[in-house]
Each structure stands twice: as structure tokens, then as C-alpha cells.
């Protein structure tokens, strides 16, 4: 089955398949995959962004967790960092500047709970709706983790990729 055959099946009738997602993720450009993931975040057929982000966080390794928190922090103003999720994101970002390289697992990402990430993600979405695209692009680099979102989210992502590839 060709790549377009797999993708076309998602235009007409989305299905729940991790195998198709693996196959497509390995073949499409990262920006196409990231856009598909972001579309799944926006869909009214999937859980809210906060819940989906918390699921991704829960299945991520420590380095991926740190990277996700950095994406979310970038969408939230510094004044809000200390006020949400019991200050978890503020503590994570404490002492960091934009000039510092990517966060490391030792920087406290593993001390943040999934529930706190859900709250942080919702605050980030409210502050900057573009965070959905940035988190989608981030997890396009880690497609193995994305499968935790479930079949509906994967089908939506694949449908979006199919629509984009037809253009």
C-alpha cells in the first residue's frame, strides 16, 4: 500500500490504527506531522488540549518532558508562571533564560505531575493559541509518544496530513 493510499483512507473514513500512523510518521515531513498533531489538539472529537498534553507528558522520557515544559512556558507570560499549577512551571523555569540551551531532565521536569501539566497546558492555550502548533511540532520529533493519544487523535492527525498532501 502506498503512502497516499494509506492517507486517502483517512479522508473518507478515519480508522483507529497505530500501524498506519507509524508508517506515515516515518515518511512525511516533520511539519506535516506536526500540523496533523496540532489538528488533533483542536478537534472537538478528542479530549481537551490540557488532557492530551498531560497524556503526552506522562509517556515522555525526562528529556522530552523538559522540552514540553519549555514549549508551554514559552506561551505563558513570566508573571503567570508562578501562579499556575502550584508554581510548578515557575520552579522549573527558575534561573533559566532564553539564552540557556534546552532544558535537561535534571532541571526539575520530572518533579512536575501530569495534573500540573494539564493545568499548565490549558493556561498556555489561553495565553497563546499558537502553542498547539508548537507542541504539535515538538511531538512530531517524537512520534512514538503520540500514539498514547489514541486512535481518534491519530485518525484526525492522519486525515489532516492527507488533506495537506493533496494540495
Structural write-up:
66% of the residues lie in helices and 0% in strands. The chain is mostly helical and 167 residues long. The protein has one domain. α4 (49-59) crosses α8 and α5 (62-75) packs parallel to α8 (114-127). It is elongated and about 50 Å long. The two termini are 21 Å apart. Residues 97-101 have low confidence and may be disordered.
- H-E order: HHHHHHHHHHH
Give the helix tally: 11
- By DSSP, the count of extended strands is 0
Percent strand equals under 5%
Distance linking N and C termini = 21 Å
Unreliable residue runs = 97-101
Total domains: 1
Chain-wise SSE layout:
Blueprint: H1 3-12, H2 18-25, H3 30-42, H4 49-59, H5 62-75, H6 78-81, H7 88-93, H8 114-127, H9 131-140, H10 143-146, H11 151-166
Helix pairs in contact: 1-11, 3-9, 3-11, 4-8, 5-8, 5-9
Supply the key terms:
elongated, 167 residues
What is this entry, summarized?
This protein has 167 residues and is mainly α.
Amino acid at each position: 500500500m502506498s503512502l497516499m493510499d494509506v492517507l486517502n483512507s483517512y479522508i473518507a473514513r478515519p480508522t483507529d490504527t497505530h500501524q498506519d500512523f507509524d508508517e506515515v510518521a516515518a515518511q512525511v515531513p516533520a511539519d506535516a506531522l506536526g500540523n496533523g498533531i496540532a489538528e488533533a489538539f483542536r478537534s472537538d472529537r478528542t479530549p481537551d488540549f490540557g488532557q492530551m498534553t498531560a497524556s503526552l507528558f506522562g509517556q515522555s522520557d525526562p528529556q522530552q518532558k523538559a522540552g514540553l515544559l519549555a514549549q508551554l512556558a514559552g506561551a505563558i507570560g513570566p508573571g503567570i508562571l508562578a501562579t499556575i499549577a502550584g508554581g510548578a512551571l515557575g520552579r522549573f523555569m527558575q534561573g533559566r533564560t532564553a539564552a540557556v540551551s534546552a532544558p535537561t531532565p535534571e532541571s526539575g521536569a520530572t518533579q512536575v505531575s501530569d495534573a500540573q501539566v494539564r493545568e499548565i497546558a490549558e493556561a498556555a492555550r489561553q495565553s497563546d493559541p499558537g502553542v498547539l502548533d508548537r507542541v504539535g511540532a515538538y511531538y512530531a520529533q517524537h512520534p512514538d509518544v503520540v500514539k498514547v493519544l489514541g486512535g481518534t487523535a491519530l485518525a484526525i492527525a492522519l486525515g489532516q496530513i492527507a488533506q495537506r498532501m493533496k494540495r
